[in-house]
Amino acid sequence: MKIGLTGGIAIRNSNPAEIFLPAVAAVALGIGIVFISRFTLGRLPGIKVTDAVATGGLFGAVSGSTLAAVLPQLDSAKIPYEAWTAALYPFMDIPALVTAIVVASVYISKTTGNASEKVEIWPIIKESLQSSAVTALLLGVALGILTKPEPVYESFFNPLFRGFLAVLMIIMGMEAAQRMNELRKVAQWFAIYAFFAPIIHGFLAFGLGLIIHKITGFSIGGAVVMAVIAASSSDISGPPTLRAGIPSANPSAYIGASTAIGTPVAIAICIPLFIGLAELLLGR
Question: Residue 202's Cα: distance from chain center in Å?
Fold first, then answer.
């Protein structure tokens, strides 16, 4: 609910006309990153498809800390960007998480059911959207857009969230430790994916940002923000949502890939890389 409220408030405070095309691109990126992981990482030897899909969901979702890191650096480099670009994150974050849950559910239905029977996609999508985690997420978005929940957000949801998140991380850490043996045989594939994925996702987003720049005048700095949020991987919204939505996925795989490798690559490599590209395009 807190994560959804954060996104809804950000959307409500943005300009709908200006944000439309970048938001569509962010949605496409969030969904596309899940499928990239499904059909690359998910096809490597020894990788469980549910682990690959959960990893794609986490890398398609957005890290608030990485987003917070790029904005001051753009200011320092004196590269202008739209004030509402931070509001793009829920458009990438939520579709990625929901898509990962739906794709994993479809795969599980196919593998556990009769192979000759056709899998009905819509009931799976409906069931995924009605799951407790996704329902709370979407309800929070709706409330953030349609109401003004800032007082209750600051007094109740924000402080309560920190305590719940601490408990959740302890539980997920215990689960990851228990399932570490599953990961040791294929850890190198997750490490390789986690290193290259942020850079590839960032370039895809930067390219889309430049196309939108040509069409609408969207700033180069805005394209950098889009690239960095695509390069980032969620450290807050993703783990609880994926744990609830894809319980069969191994947390040591998708959290390890994101936290140990993905986030450092996004911050240490992708932010300077895309700011440097922006400076080249601006003729500096």
Answer: 12
**What domains can you pick out in the chain, each with its CATH number?**
2-281 (1.20.1530)
CA distance 37 to 32: 9
Residue 20 sits at the vertex; the CA angle it makes with 16 and 25, to the nearest 5 degrees, is: 150
Nearest Cα residue to 66 out of 224, 187, 200: 224
Residue 249, both tokens: 């996925």
Burial of 112 (0-12, 13-18, 19+ CB in 10 A): exposed
45-60 tens-digit pLDDT? 999 999 999 999 999 9
Q: Burial letters for 193-227: b for 16+ Cβ neighbours within 10 Å, e otherwise?
A: bbeebbbbbbbbbbebbbebbeeeebbbbbbbbbb
Count, in order, helices (H) and strands (E) of the chain. Answer: 16, 0
Residue 144 in tokens: 């953030």
Task: Reduce the DSSP state of residue 48 to 3 states and report it.
Answer: coil
Kindly write down the DSSP assignment for every residue of 107-119, as one continuous string.
HHHHHHS-TTSPP
Give how far the C-alpha of residue 223 lies from the chain's centroid of Cα atoms, to the nearest Å. 17
Name the most confidently modeled range: 16-20, 106-110, 192-196, 246-250: 192-196
Q: pLDDT tens across 63-84, in order?
A: 877 888 898 899 899 999 887 8
Those residues whose C-beta lies under 8 Å from the C-beta of residue 121, and which sit 6 or more positions away, are: 106
Measured CA to CA, the distance from residue 55 to residue 255 in angstroms comes to 8
Q: CA–CA separation, 92 vs 25, rounded Å?
A: 8
